[in-house]
Amino acid sequence: MPEVKMKESEAPDAHFTVDKQNISLWPREPPPKPDLSPVLRKPLSLRVAFICLSLVLVASIVLQAVFYPRLVDKILDVKSDAQMLRDRADNISSLGSVLEKDRGRVEEAEVQIQILNTSLTRARSQILSLRIIMEQASAQISVLTRNWEEVDSLSSKIPELQRDLDKSSALNAKVRGLQNSLENVNKLLQRQSDILEMVSRGWKYFGGNLYYFSYTPKTWYSAEQSCISRDAHLTSVTSESEQEFLYKSADRLPCWIGLTKAGTEGHWYWVDGTLFNKEQSKRFWIPGEPNNTGNNEHCGNIRVSSLQAWNDASCDSKFPFICKRPFIQAIP
Ligand SMILES: [Ca+2]
């Protein structure tokens, strides 16, 4: 220690000199710093370190004292926040399931929306169709309205038209009556014309039938063929007046008529299809006939000029013959 004091006392004082134009400050070299020994520096650094540690300790204690309650509060807050976050996480997971359900509902809603869109499209097309129909109906209503106006104007003329119509109806009735009369007259004229035309060709008219008297002798079968070629058959006889007409027209000549039993077992019949009435026909046979001479008399003729005129004869015999066909007026 005395050496240190001595060295501090031996340090030169500062002197300031002015030498002519030079100003100098001396000693020019700075005094050497005291060289503290490690022995002295070490305790000081320890104390400083100790003091620093103490200060840090005190500071930490103070800080703990000051901030501990706040820290505890913060921890509690953090815990409550964590609990809140956990609750929210639970809520989020429950929300996830809810969202999953909602997604299904949303998909169903989307399907229903598509169906609704399809329905709307159809409805829109139907509306368009209805609009077209409405326009057409409107046009038709316009036409009907114009027609109705015309009808309304014509309705005022109905009474006058009704009077004219009554007059014309009466006239029409008279005209129809005259037309019917004229038609009947025309039919009669046509009938007479047809009959006259047939008569001019050698036919005779009686009782609604036409008769053709052929005076060329033929066998019964050839006579029938000749009648068929005239669109007729050998005549049938169904009444006394017809019988009388025939025997008188035959002028006492024996003539074949359409009576035969050929092809049957003794049953007479008319070749033109008329039903043969055996009982009513008995009055037309010559007494004693039919006698079937030689078992070969299978055809009938008018032999005498009398109501009792029929005789059975051999079909191969040749006689004049009488054809008959119903008179059917030609349709004009
Ligand atoms: Ca006979």
Description:
- With 332 residues, this protein is of the alpha+beta class.
- It has a domain at 195-326: Mannose-Binding Protein A, subunit A (Mannose-Binding Protein A, Chain A).
- The protein has helices at residues 2-9, 38-155, 158-200, 220-229, 240-250, 278-281, and strands at 15-19, 22-26, 203-206, 209-218, 233-234, 255-260, 269-270, 299-302, 310-313, 319-326.
- Mean pLDDT is 85; it is low at 1-12.
- Calcium ion is lined by residues 289-291, 293, 297, 311-313.
List the topology elements:
Elements (H helix, E strand, L loop, with lengths): L1 H8 L5 E5 L2 E5 L11 H118 L2 H43 L2 E4 L2 E10 L1 H10 L3 E2 L5 H11 L4 E6 L8 E2 L7 H4 L17 E4 L7 E4 L5 E8 L6
Antiparallel strand pairs: 1-2, 3-4, 4-10, 5-10, 6-7, 6-8, 8-9
InterPro entries: C-type_lectin-like, C-type_lectin-like/link_sf, C-type_lectin/snaclec_domain, C-type_lectin_CS, CD209-like_CTLD, CTDL_fold
Membrane topology: Single-pass type II membrane protein
Subunit structure: Homotrimer.
Offer a quick outline of the entry.
The chain has helices at residues 2-9, 38-155, 158-200, 220-229, 240-250, 278-281, and strands spanning 15-19, 22-26, 203-206, 209-218, 233-234, 255-260, 269-270, 299-302, 310-313, 319-326. The chain is an alpha+beta fold and 332 residues long. Mean pLDDT is 85; it is low at 1-12.
